[in-house]
Amino acid sequence: MRDNPALCFPLAEYKRRLTELRERMQERLLDAVVISDPENLFYLTGYQTTGYSYFQALVVPLDGEPVSITRELEASNIVHRTWVEEARCYTDTGDAIQELFYTIKDLGLENKCIGYERNSYFFPAYQQDRFHYHMQAGEGNLLDCYGIVEEGRICKSQVEIELMRSAALATEAGMQAGIDAVQAGATENDVAAAACAAMFRAGSDYPAVLPYVTSGPRTMIGHATWEGRTIQPGEHVFLEMAGCVRRYHTAMMRTVLLDEKSAAMQSAEATMIEALEAAHELIRPGLMVTDLDKCVRDIICHNDVGAKLITRVGYSIGIAFAPSWDEGYIMSLKQGDETVLRPGMTFHLIPWMWGVEGDKTCGISDTILVTEEGCESFFTLPKEMTVV
């Protein structure tokens, strides 16, 4: 491993991550793993690019230096961003999977047990089939090693938490600017532009997902965002965004009203804040996910304004590339999950309300860190709905 002043973290942090990965490889009786998930590659090496739709991988043997495989254009990211010493490149007219097989063969691993991430978005089935075909020539065994890196990612180290604190400052700056931009006659684009500009000026890198900005009846559309609609007097605006620093995200929902707070919105606001406060009081190491889900879900579902909680109550958050800012594939807060919370876990809690009075969606959310004694928020921005 080579030191590199451009690394996100000290080299010792990456050595720890690699050592712990190899311990899990030994537990699973794997001689090597092929890591292709963009978030996992970033976690292990610091490698990042927006060109991750092209095949890229890190071959990690139990002993010896890992080898990176990437498109030739992306090789500069290995040099400038990572500690990896050896990179094998393929051209745009080359064969990425053949390069992967040759690398495994050169490392003397073609007859060994090799894990690979079957769930990786950017290692599609047709490429996996070709990988299996090439490996048939030897006596090796290909096994799914899904989760082997994620086991290390679920609890954040202190240096990761500090990056998330920086991301939280950018999130709050973007949210406050978005709130301030809401007024009758402004467009959703105006609000999004203000939020993005403030977030980026506050130090955010490009987030995995740009802010969600919807107004009036459009708030009922799941995962919709700005479309040029003009905000009308008396309506409400739903905002959700995540700032990002070195690929680490923190996310937040808020709601803005362009009228006096109706009885229904007062009730919705009180219910969401009650759910967040109850979650804060309950969260601690050793708590089962299903108990946290029940706490939040019971409060939200027993509302008097006709709203529903139609999703999980939260999800792990941290490293992310598009198409999503969450780590819900590692851990989601949902019914029946008996996983226990541990210090260092970070979650976006989302006790939002879909269908207030049948035609409005509003949200108040929080990103929290599980501590040794309980939990703490990354944010200081007021939770209450803003009335313009």
From TrEMBL:
EC number: 3.5.4.44
Domain Peptidase M24: 162-372
NCBIfam families documented for this protein: ectoine_DoeA_2
Domain (Creatinase N-terminal) ranges: 17-154
Protein name: Ectoine hydrolase
Stored Pfam families: Creatinase_N, Peptidase_M24
Domain of life from the UniProt record: Bacteria
Gene3D superfamilies with a match to the protein in the record: Creatinase/methionine aminopeptidase superfamily (3.90.230.10), Creatinase/prolidase N-terminal domain (3.40.350.10)
Keywords per UniProt: Hydrolase
EC class of the enzyme, as a word: hydrolase
Taxonomy of the source species: Bacteria, Pseudomonadati, Pseudomonadota, Gammaproteobacteria, Pseudomonadales
GO molecular function annotations of the record: hydrolase activity
